[in-house]
TrEMBL record:
GO MF terms held by the record: ATP binding; protein serine/threonine kinase activity
This protein's record includes keyword Protein biosynthesis: no
Name under which the protein is recorded: Uncharacterized protein
Domain (AGC-kinase C-terminal) ranges: 185-257
Lineage: Eukaryota, Metazoa, Ecdysozoa, Arthropoda, Hexapoda
Keywords: ATP-binding, Kinase, Nucleotide-binding, Phosphoprotein, Serine/threonine-protein kinase, Transferase
Listed Gene3D superfamilies: Phosphorylase Kinase, domain 1, Transferase(Phosphotransferase) domain 1
Domain Protein kinase intervals: 1-184
């Protein structure tokens, strides 16, 4: 996980009290680029707040804590989960009437309001803070301080619009509607996207692992390692639980350097007591009927006792009883010679006398 040594935007707000509009404009612009990317992937963020916005070592923003994201939200799709942080939650989330991408733009307006006033727009200070905050979000008029510029006031009022269809960013152009607002007239969106413009604040760090930008209430806490549950630790005899398995990952087959030895073992890994053989170059010159299923090539087990012949014909056991005439066709290459249509007994004889364990393909 990437370490963002610049700390939380929340801590910057705590230190500064409020941001100048120019500073807020830069940060809001970078947030828009991040949310626009999520929306382009069919993802809504749903938990935008200063605590989830971190600065990297260069002072650029990154969104974190994606645990409340919802995927597969395209176009006008909505979801109904109640989630987020109340002070920044859109009204349609609080009422559970269905929310989609525009909910993130409401939260953007709430975060922007927090940046330039020092508090979220509808937060209540009463004892019943959460309930009153919800009531304020749903019913109270937005009050914008007089010192806020007309451009910023207009943007805030259009983002903090309760009617979803009228909210800025809810139209066909989505984020582009917000980016074209006059509040961002000094923003070069290409530079914002490429992170080539200088941030208003660059953290002063002593090194890559500097933690001074984080709240000391957290960094002063003694670290506690997660206790190890010994019941999940591997035991000396755990390898025997896999005896009899003849599978090897297909992705590893091409990387194996296989060379036969006299006792039918293979120099795949000298430390392994049991080795597995499968070949991507099995003979395919067998007529396959469209009316019967075709079995995939079997993987034949070889060990210090030679070939485990019981593994050669276990793909379809019901076909191998003594009275059955439905013998499987076997395509195999032994010592460079191709052998077709061998029945089980004949193949056993071949496998027993060959110096190279056969490569087997079974077809019903």
């Amino acid at each position: 996980m990437e370490y963002l040594s610049g700390g939380e935007l929340f801590m910057q707000l705590e230190r500064e009290g409020i941001f100048l509009e120019e500073t807020a404009c830069f940060y809001v612009a970078e947030i828009i680029i991040a949310i626009q990317h999520l929306h382009s992937q069919g993802i809504i963020y749903r938990d935008l707040k200063p605590e989830n916005i971190l600065l990297d070592q260069d002072g650029h923003l990154k969104l974190t804590d994606l645990g409340l994201c919802k995927e597969n939200i395209h176009g006008d799709s909505v979801t109904h989960t109640f989630c987020g942080t109340i002070s920044y939650m859109a009204p349609e989330i609080l009422t559970r009437s269905g929310h989609g991408k525009p909910a993130d733009w409401w939260s953007l307006g709430a975060v922007m309001f927090d940046m330039i006033t020092g508090t979220p727009p509808f937060r209540a200070d009463s004892m019943d803070g959460a309930e009153d905050t919800v009531a304020n979000i749903l019913t109270r008029d937005l009050e914008i301080p007089l010192y806020i510029s007309m451009e910023a006031s207009d943007l805030l009022s259009k983002l903090l619009e309760r009617q979803v269809s009228s909210r800025l960013g809810s139209g066909l152009n989505e984020a582009e509607e917000i980016k074209n607002h006059c509040f961002f007239q000094q923003i070069d969106w290409k530079e914002i996207t490429n992170r080539t413009c200088e941030p208003p604040y660059i953290p002063i760090l002593s090194g890559a692992d500097d933690t001074t930008q984080f709240d000391s209430r957290f960094t002063d806490q003694p670290p506690v390692d997660t206790p190890v549950d010994d019941s999940f630790m591997p035991r000396d005899n755990d390898e025997f639980k896999f005896d009899g398995f003849t599978y090897i990952a297909p992705s590893l087959i091409d990387n194996l350097s296989v060379s036969p030895t006299r006792d039918h073992t293979f120099n795949i890994n000298q430390e392994m007591e049991t080795h597995y053989l499968s070949s991507p170059s099995l003979d395919r010159n067998v007529t396959r009927s469209n009316s019967v299923p075709v079995y995939q090539p079997r993987i034949v087990q070889a060990n210090h006792r030679g070939i485990d012949h019981s593994k050669l014909f276990d793909a379809c056991p019901q076909s191998f009883n003594n009275n059955s005439t439905n013998r499987p066709h076997v395509s195999t290459t032994v010592n460079g010679s191709n052998i077709l249509n061998q029945n089980q007994n004949e193949m056993m004889e071949v496998a027993s006398t060959s110096s190279i364990p056969p490569q087997i393909e079974l077809i019903q």
